[in-house]
Amino acid sequence: MWVVIAGLALASCAAPNAEPTAAEDASLPTAARGELIFQSDREGPTRLFVLDVATSTQRRVGNAGEWADEEPDWSHDGRRIAFSSTRGQNGSFDIYVMDADGSNIVRLTDHAAPEQDPAWAHDDKSLFFTAERDGRGEIYRVWLQDKRVERITNSINRAIMPAVSRDGRYLAYAAQTIMSFQLHLLDLTTGTSRQITSGEGACRPSFAPDSQEIAFVRMGGPSHLEAVRESGPRVVRKDARAWSYYPDYSPDGRYLAFSVSPEHHQGEDWDLALMDLQGSGKIERLTSGRGNDRVPDWRPVSAR
């Protein structure tokens, strides 16, 4: 049972586009394996790429165009990728899925309001996502079989950035409180929701494989990464010289992939990084160079 961490929120949680100068990150001598899908604007429009962690080889996935493809999320069987895209005729973000090789692209939503943040349900039969269909962000669910859409949250303020526990019981999301965003946890079996963070703004939840811990972004100057479980919150990654964002656990729970940048908004330069959660806490840069690399998501082990 998850504990409620009550308190007054003090700062906002805005998604960065990434102030302080970046640290020179130390090399991380690990044997990490697997694939990460992520979004990058290195070619101009935001597109999706897959990185082999062990070899550092990268490939673009999905057909290129003047549209934006963003926020990729692997299905639990590793065979499909959910993402948001502006490739539709209305030019607004909608939810799509495609096969792992970029083929068989299917549009699941078609609405004038932006629809983003896709997150697979545990059985891969539906997706949770954020939409502004009623004038503010709320969480919705779409079924792949018939494209039926159901509204999940109905809050006074915004509810965005859904993440689903691996056991399928919980939905974590960022909900706007009086002064900022805080993480809330919805029990999908009972329909009850409660706040699980407090203090400075919190957003971008990501469940650990055992469903017992949630990594998230703690806003401030600069943003850093924390995690929360029944015993309370802990700091995972904090560097006064760099901004950290978009955490995602590896399938075995040992590593945390995320994005890091020396600046926020103006002068941002996001790269992918990797932390060994069982090691010294130092990180390894996985990408560098032109473009902003963000929103990493690990491919499940069963797919390799």
Could you describe the 3D structure shown?
The chain has 304 residues and is mainly β. The chain has a single domain, classed as TolB, C-terminal domain (Neuraminidase, 6 Propeller). The protein contains no helices and 24 strands. It has strands at residues 35-40, 47-52, 58-61, 69-74, 80-85, 94-99, 106-107, 115-120, 126-131, 138-143, 149-151, 159-164, 170-176, 181-187, 193-195, 202-207, 214-218, 224-229, 232-237, 243-249, 255-261, 271-276, 283-285, 293-298.
Topology:
Blueprint: E1 35-40, E2 47-52, E3 58-61, E4 69-74, E5 80-85, E6 94-99, E7 106-107, E8 115-120, E9 126-131, E10 138-143, E11 149-151, E12 159-164, E13 170-176, E14 181-187, E15 193-195, E16 202-207, E17 214-218, E18 224-229, E19 232-237, E20 243-249, E21 255-261, E22 271-276, E23 283-285, E24 293-298
Antiparallel strand pairs: 1-2, 1-24, 2-3, 4-5, 5-6, 6-7, 8-9, 9-10, 10-11, 12-13, 13-14, 14-15, 16-17, 17-18, 18-19, 20-21, 21-22, 22-23
Return residue spans where pLDDT drops below 50 for at least 5 consecutive residues: 1-12, 14-29
- The total tally of domains equals 1
Output the helix-strand order: EEEEEEEEEEEEEEEEEEEEEEEE
Number of DSSP helical runs: 0
Q: Which structural class should the secondary elements be placed in?
A: mainly beta
Q: What is the CATH T-level topology?
A: Neuraminidase
Q: What is the name of the CATH class? A: Mainly Beta
